[in-house]
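Ops channel
N.P.: pipeline sanity check, posting one input/output pair.
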């Protein structure tokens, strides 16, 4: 009978998702992607998938998905954790430069107190670049095991311990060891702060990056301006003037202790990639993927998986002239920045200015990064080529060096402003890194290559300045070297500012993949 046949067909149809849930068996929706089960963390709403089948029932966790797969309506803990993360990121960024700029403001007192030579002082000012190159590469591997939050907590603890111990360690070796410990924590945090912003605030990357950059520049300027007054408040003790900067780092440690349980880092990112949820593939959506659903095959530039050893295969970045230009540009701007942070107060003090004024001048130089960190990326993004912007920053640095040579005391504030403008090559190069790749994966590889290459290039610069200063007894030769390095930086910035993509330059020399070698048919 037709009616019986219709009823049989209806009975054979699968239950709709709602019926399946009512029966106690969750039915995957159309967005689900099959694959091995991934451990989820209840603290991370992006990775938690609700209670497993057969799990004992209990009160719903606010902010976590319910058994139906939809988030619970009330989420006070999630709001609280979000605010705590914002405060944690801001406070962590505040601690990423005081260990460097406070030393620059008190470098003469440290040299006199420890009997440090000019060459050793140059080593001290080169130590940040060296530690960033050595310890920064460890951060991604450490974060894969427990996420970025525990590593950031360890970084803040290392900063607090190093800053607190180095003035009282006794002798030059102890001071160097304490400085290296603090700088190792800064290196780990340097690398993972952008990762934390991307993981926890994927829809507010620009806002949170601006907050992170602003507080980093604010901490840099505050330490430079208040290091000498802090030492004077403790009876002229340079040891206390340096050690006091362990207090904000200790505050960051206390703030990150509860956040260390947030496991929404690199591991949970892999979990989301398997489940097809938001944030898969490194918190980005491929052009062929919208709302977690694959709509077609991704292009080769984005669908090639990363190998287990972490070496990129889709694009050989070392064959890209743009990647090398960016890496070298990053290195020379880092050289100029660490020379400024380490030696600019000494230049002003040798010109006859008091220590407090020299620290304030360094604070002005560093403080310009607060507003310009917001403006420069916007300006650069609106330009087809950024070469003119890089050239303008380089010319500003050359004018500042010329002023330091001819009239260091008379025009001190003008030279500090010019060097502050020139120092904003740092946000420019970060912006260029994001503009010189077609894919998110390419940006990650380019960033790692440019920063590791750049920090290695910047190691000898401050050391050479210290050696020249010690042997010449003045600032003529050091300023000549600084000007020569700035000319090279200008040329590299012009080259890196051209609109190019590393995929277009680095992929052509690679051999064809297995699919290309497979005969047709």
């Amino acid at each position: 009978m037709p009616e019986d046949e219709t009823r049989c067909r209806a009975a054979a149809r699968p239950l709709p998702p709602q019926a399946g849930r009512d029966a106690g068996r969750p039915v995957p929706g159309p967005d689900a992607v099959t694959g091995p089960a991934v451990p989820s963390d209840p603290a991370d709403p992006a990775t938690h998938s609700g209670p497993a089948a057969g799990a004992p029932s209990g009160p719903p966790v606010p902010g976590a998905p319910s058994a139906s797969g939809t988030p619970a309506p009330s989420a006070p803990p999630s709001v609280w954790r979000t605010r705590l993360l914002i405060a944690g990121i801001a406070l962590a960024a505040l601690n990423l430069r005081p260990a460097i700029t406070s030393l620059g403001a008190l470098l003469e007192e440290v040299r006199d107190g420890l009997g440090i030579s000019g060459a050793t002082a140059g080593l001290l000012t080169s130590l940040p670049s060296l530690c960033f190159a050595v310890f920064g590469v460890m951060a991604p591997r450490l974060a894969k095991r427990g996420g970025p939050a525990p590593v950031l907590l360890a970084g803040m603890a290392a900063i607090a311990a190093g800053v607190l111990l180095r003035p009282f360690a006794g002798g030059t070796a102890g001071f160097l060891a304490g400085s290296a410990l603090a700088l190792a924590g800064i290196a780990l945090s340097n690398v993972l702060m952008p990762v934390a912003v991307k993981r926890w605030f994927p829809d507010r990357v620009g806002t949170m990056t601006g907050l992170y950059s602003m507080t980093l520049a604010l901490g840099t300027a505050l330490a430079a301006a208040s290091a000498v007054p802090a030492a004077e408040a403790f009876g002229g003790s340079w040891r206390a003037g340096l050690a006091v900067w362990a207090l904000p780092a200790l505050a960051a440690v206390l703030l990150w202790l509860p956040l260390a349980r947030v496991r929404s880092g690199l591991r949970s990112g892999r979990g989301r990639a398997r489940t097809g949820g938001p944030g898969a593939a490194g918190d980005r959506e491929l052009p062929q993927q919208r709302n977690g659903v694959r709509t077609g095959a991704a292009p080769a530039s984005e669908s090639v998986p990363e190998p287990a050893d972490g070496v990129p295969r889709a694009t050989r970045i070392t064959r890209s002239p743009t990647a090398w230009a960016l890496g070298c540009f990053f290195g020379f701007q880092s050289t100029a920045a660490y020379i400024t942070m380490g030696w600019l107060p000494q230049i002003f003090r040798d010109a006859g200015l008091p220590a407090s004024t020299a620290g304030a001048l360094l604070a002005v130089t560093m403080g310009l990064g607060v507003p310009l960190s917001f403006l420069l990326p916007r300006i650069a993004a609106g330009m087809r080529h950024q070469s003119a912007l890089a050239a303008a920053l380089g010319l500003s640095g050359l004018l500042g060096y010329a002023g330091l040579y001819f009239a260091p005391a008379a025009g001190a504030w003008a030279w500090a402003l010019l060097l502050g403008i020139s120092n904003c090559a740092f946000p420019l190069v970060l912006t260029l890194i994001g503009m010189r790749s077609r894919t998110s994966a390419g940006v990650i590889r380019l960033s790692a290559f440019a920063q590791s290459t750049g920090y290695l290039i910047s190691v000898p610069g401050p050391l050479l300045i210290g050696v020249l200063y010690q042997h010449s007894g003045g600032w003529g030769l050091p300023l000549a070297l600084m000007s020569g390095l700035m000319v090279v930086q200008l040329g590299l910035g012009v080259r890196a500012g051209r609109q190019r993509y590393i995929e277009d330059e680095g992929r052509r020399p690679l051999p064809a993949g297995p699919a290309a070698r497979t005969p047709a048919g």
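N.P.: looks fine end to end. The longest strand covers residues 289-290.
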